[in-house]
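Lab notebook: predicted structure, single chain.

Context: the supervisor wants predicted structures on file for every construct in the current expression panel, including those that have not yet been purified. This is the next one on the list. No modifications to the sequence; it matches the entry in the shared construct table.
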Amino acid sequence: MSNAYSLAGASVHDIEAASGAVYRLLLYVPRMEVPDYLPARTMPGEGWPLLLMTDGNSCFGTAVDALRSQADYPKGTNIGWGVIAAVGYPTEEAYDPLRRSWDLSPPPGTSFPPYTPDGPPVRTGGADEFLDFLESRLLPFITARTKIDPARKSLFGHSFGGLFALHALFTRPGLFQKIIAVSPTIHWDDCAILRTEKAATFDLPVRPSIHLSAGEHEGERLAPFQEGNEDAAARLISKKTERTLAYAEEMAAKLAEPDGANLQTSFENLANHTHMSAPTPAIARAVQVAFSLKQ
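Prediction complete. Output recorded below exactly as produced.
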């Protein structure tokens, strides 16, 4: 018996960027063949809605299962079928810390000591280059394989990925219609993203909407299981500097101001979750945001 596991409707593609870097695209397209007891699946006339996710190695399976378990029952879930495209790296691990540090952080960036003694320095600031790859290479790759509704493209990111999603919103607001930013590292680089937000304009026929969230234990208190740990004091200091929960909620409120960006925004406090556990419920919410039938 084979130990391999396959996910019906899913495929894996390694795609080379102009820089020579290779990305792994995990792609899910709904299957049209269904058992008799399920309703027929049909692609909308405009094409499938798309959920594009960063850190694809860590989130693809969760997102696809959240969609598969709900989309055949729209009267009970308000979720329809769509395409999930999760962008990651050629690795079997959940993350590639070195590459994501470059891809997901806004310019100008800097260089940090290696993660390992013999490793390369950690570089940041490659978000615009990564956005170029998504826009000029990845999205055309997807649309060449299945029809995508150009008015229903969503972008999901967590942590640095959440910061990247905000950067995409502020610098290329027409690329995605919905932004889902989870635990965004707004504090990064002395809150430089706030200066990017201040300079952003949204002169578009249809303005994008944004859903922000963060874990309850990304505020100024530790999770109960972290209290008493040897690193508790250091964690508390970091929390008060990073202000992940507060910055996310403040960003949602600021972007909704009628005299400001005047965007449709929402904010969610993910109860009982920390920075590293927040993605699991947030991915389920992203599926709802991206594939909802009635707004």
